[in-house]
Amino acid sequence: MIIGICGGTGSGKTTMARSIVERVGSENVNLIEQDSYYKNLVSLPLDARRDANFDHPDSLDIDNLTEDLNALRAGRTIEIPVYDFTTHTRKDEPLRLEPRPITLLEGILIFTVPELREIMDLKIFLDADSDTRLLRRIRRDIKERGRTLEQTLLQYEKTIRPMHHEYVEPTKEFADIVIPEEGHSELLVDMLALLVQAELKKKSVTTI
Fold it and tell me: Which fold does the domain 2-207 belong to in CATH?
């Protein structure tokens, strides 16, 4: 089973996905982040890499991501790219991922691609207000991606906000479940975890 968790930057996708993994058990669930599949910009100078639009669907290696998801569904091991956000290049050593009953895929652009939507068995959209998302983005970029406040705000004005309205927000219509900001509760995560556990039981019965 492949579950897609989409929503704007800072909407809580990674937090929710990791909470589900924690409840269900990492031995049962794979978590794949869209960000791992950004195209390798090693051929560009560093300034050009920093100015790249990472909020446009063209920034992703869709073929690689689609191929890997289909491979996991078929029971094959994959090697996920490891993206370095300080250099905007892929690291030399990929991450090996064994197939598991459930795969969680999270990212801002995963519902923009028809091929990806077709692979997903359940699509969840996290709908958070723009102020909340911006504050979370600032904290993350400064702490984890080596950016300054000025760089983050400039990127938000230049690409993040316009791309959200053009590409991310419209994909809400493809979601099976839309969760508002106030709905991001422990109870909801527990409900999703129960759904995943029910799917695991079905797979166990089928195997027997």
Answer: Rossmann fold (3.40.50)
Closest Cα partner for 140 from 66, 33, 48, 27?
33
Residue 70 burial by Cβ neighbours in a 10 Å radius (0-12, 13-18, 19+): middle
What is the full DSSP assignment across 19-35? HHHHHH-TTTEEEEEGG
Q: How far from chain centre, in Å, is Cα 22? A: 17
Give, for all 208 residues of the chain, the pLDDT tens digit. Answer: 999 999 998 888 988 898 889 888 899 999 999 999 999 999 999 888 888 899 999 999 999 999 999 999 999 999 999 999 888 899 999 999 999 999 999 999 999 999 999 999 999 999 987 878 788 888 878 887 778 888 888 878 888 899 999 999 999 999 999 988 655 567 777 877 888 788 778 776 655 4
